[in-house]
């Protein structure tokens, strides 16, 4: 069992899964009041590191020291099959109630006047103040309302609520429990603007250590006091030197082993990382050029005694006296070149690893370049959606926004044909092919490899015409791994590949940046701008929304705030 500390200390932690090293010698200290954001490619080990920090698994090397009450929010919360909403919210206060009971008991024990009782009371008071036991009920009510859960019946089974509601319920339980340290995996997923604003304010005033992984670029800018990039490329240095402390104009960077902590904002980090990569690539190119020159010097000079012609008769006499000196000079040049070559080979920076770059959306959407794809008239879906006159054109670019429960996912389901209207008419273009990137990815056969899933879903001909590896969504090392062992972000990459490998006429994306790496989210947004068909996105992502150049539809209580298509 790890020792307790006010700080979260991760010391030289490594983790290996199925002979693949996910984390290597990671060291990090998160002090009270620090809010450190973990970033990196999907599969870089963010969720693994959070699980190790929480003590839910043990590292293969290294150690973790954590505060006494450390809570973890998973990307995909786990609840028992019989858990109800009320039971989860009550359980969230179980530790707080135990702390309050110990405080009451310690207060009674003070009557004996012993030093032990006094020490016990002091400890109980500290614990009670950290857990804020006297405001627990008010805190629960505030958190439940702020996360949009006050409308859920307490007797309702958690298995019967939506995936977004489950995630918000798990987040509520963590915040209500008021732990000493917070570990959060994609905490802003499924949160609307009001809920994100509440969470940001809550975390900025959190007294203990906070370590979180997030794809949400605006959230990182607002909350993080520091960033840790777990990508291998981020841990390397352009000068090939031993780890050191480096100052940056917008923040301090301190490094320990393979971990880099950046003290600026996420926006500043993007500029910093780009410049660092450029320096690394230039340094590598310069060193490779110098290595090539030294190898030529060592090889060619060693085989060259007198360049050009052979010696004349008159030269033979001179060479008798000068030849030995010339040979010694050449030998010295060769030796010096070999020494410099050996030193540079030992100290050279490694080649910058190739980025897993999204190659864009392939061609393949046939026809349907004009006219309407879908036209909905006087449509009702229960109390969730009401559209009087709504249409999607062949080249539509539409961003659907609104609070949780506003009807965004219902609208996408209606457009996809997965949800039937209770009234009205929905006309779809003949031959219309619709593709959906859903919020929650589920694969029926988790044991199937990524390559096999791709081929069976698309068919051999299409899979051969659009090779999965060329889409830039799945790393070569992951192609033959079972899809079920991939991270949630990697699985969503696979789901995205299955859609775009045969581009649909109408592409529907439900919270497309959820779980995706920051780099891929940016690339995907750019690619959608030139998509060869219609695009409809439902998203809370403020970064995406601020940069969106197409039409926007805001829903409120299932109805357009400003009707479109009239």
UniProtKB/TrEMBL annotation:
Alphabetized CDD domains for the sequence: ABCF_EF-3
**Gene3D superfamilies (alphabetical):** P-loop containing nucleotide triphosphate hydrolases
Q: Does the keyword Metal-binding apply?
A: no
For molecular function, the Gene Ontology terms on record are: ATP binding; ATP hydrolysis activity
Q: Which residues form the ABC transporter domain?
A: 8-257, 368-566
The keyword Ribosomal protein belongs to this UniProt entry's keyword annotation: no
**What are the UniProt keywords, alphabetically?**
ATP-binding, Nucleotide-binding, Repeat
Q: Which Pfam families match?
A: ABC_tran
Q: Which domain of life is it from?
A: Bacteria
The record ties this protein, via InterPro entries, to: AAA+_ATPase (IPR003593), ABC_transporter-like_ATP-bd (IPR003439), ABC_transporter-like_CS (IPR017871), ABCF (IPR050611), P-loop_NTPase (IPR027417)
Which stretches are transmembrane?
none
Q: Please give the name of this protein.
A: ABC-F family ATP-binding cassette domain-containing protein
Q: Which organism does this sequence originate in?
A: Agromyces atrinae
The beginning of the lineage is: Bacteria, Bacillati, Actinomycetota, Actinomycetes, Micrococcales
